[in-house]
Amino acid sequence: MNGLNSEAFVLFGQHILWSDMIGNILGLAALALGWRRSVWTWPVQFLSGLILFGAFFGHLTGSAGKQAVVMTVAMYGWWRWHRDKDRSEDGQITPRFATWRERAAMVSAVAVGTVAVALLFMAYPTLSWDPWPDAYIFVGTVVAMYAQARGMVEFWIAWLLVDLVGVPLTFANGYAFSGFVYVIYGALVLWGMRDWWLRSRNGPQPALGLPSAHASEGASK
């Protein structure tokens, strides 16, 4: 990992690390695969998280923790999408809108989780020099990837909200390539959200194993 943390090149006066560059290119690939609803988005996300964890560890605790979450949820997402794709007509995950209860639960999880993790970081200053944004990135990533694993259209919105904090923090800490890549992320997220949004409205809803799932999801649209 020491080799990956060496300098690859200099861009606009910013020193670009190999780990920063490779990890974020893989992240872009994972996002594109997620847009296409391919289960391969999850192993690519896992590899991206592993490389970026090595880049951030010891410097940006919240960002490193975010990548640890990426790897953990990637394993869950791989299992979930493999299970659910067999229940759709085209053999891929079927996007759906979250119910209002699920939306409320996600918003509450971000709010409560951010406060709890920030207080933990404040109690142990060595974990983070900037507790609140680190906590928000950490918790927001958990919620976004969980929503993605469940096939919820709202996961795209969750990623945008996380990046609003993560991008400035990334630039401020010298990971310029990550910041530049997030500009492309933004475009992919908007296109991907549009595609999932249309599919969720025009296509059949996934079978979630809950008798009331179809009715509750339809009411949320």
TrEMBL record:
Membrane topology label: Multi-pass membrane protein
The keyword Repeat is assigned to this record: no
InterPro entries: NMN_transpt_PnuC
Main location: membrane
Entry keyword Transmembrane helix: yes
Source domain of life: Bacteria
Pfam families, A to Z: NMN_transporter (PF04973)
Keywords associated with the record: Cell membrane, Membrane, Transmembrane, Transmembrane helix, Transport
Family the entry assigns: Belongs to the nicotinamide ribonucleoside (NR) uptake permease (TC 4.B.1) family.
Protein name (Swiss-Prot/TrEMBL): Membrane protein
Organism for this UniProt entry: Streptomyces aurantiogriseus
